[in-house]
Amino acid sequence: MGNQITIYTDGAASGNPGPGGFGVVLMAGPYRKELMGGFRLTTNNRMELLAVIVGLEALKNEGEEVTIYSDSRYVVDAVEKGWVFGWEKKAFNGKKNPDLWKRFLLIYRKHKVRFVWVKGHADNPENERCDQLAVSAYKHTDLQIDYFYEAENKNT
């Protein structure tokens, strides 16, 4: 515990659904780390949420004070307006991405997290970097499989 941690996140998909990726920039004191990952078939919202999850899961200690900057209203509003906690009480019935929301809540509860929405593509250097990482990730040829998404949507 101690350092204030800042995490910038972004998700992207080429087509929605389509190949997708996420980008994360973590900053704590003098330290900076970039993370990214790409999937062969997924959605933009899944990548936005996964970016936040991966950023939080990368933290070494529990109880950190974390500020997450995201351009995703889907993610920021779901948490800051408390929607996700209502969805959880109803077992995520009828909600998209329950696998990721459950994973998010597990790691979210281990830290003191606050979200800040930032306008995307508005010359915020760290947000732009996350976007570059996300796009670069889905352009790779060795894309991961988003098993939950593909299983849920195999007939669409």
Brief summary of the model shown:
This protein is an alpha/beta fold.
Give an overview of the whole structure.
The chain is of the alpha/beta class. Helix content is 38%, strand content 29%. Strands 3-2-1-4-5 form a 5-stranded mixed sheet. The radius of gyration is 15 Å and the shape is globular.
What's the shape?
globular
Mean pLDDT: 95
Low-pLDDT runs? none
The major sheet is characterized as:
5 strands, mixed
| N-end to C-end Cα span | 46 Å
Number of helices: 6
What's the count of strands? 5
The H-and-E topology, N to C, reads as EEEHEHHHEHH
**Spatial strand sequence of the major β-sheet:** 3-2-1-4-5
Helix fraction by DSSP (H/I, runs of at least 4) = 25-40%
Instruction: Find the structural class using helix and strand composition.
Output: alpha/beta
Strand content: 25-35%
Evaluate the radius of gyration.
15 Å
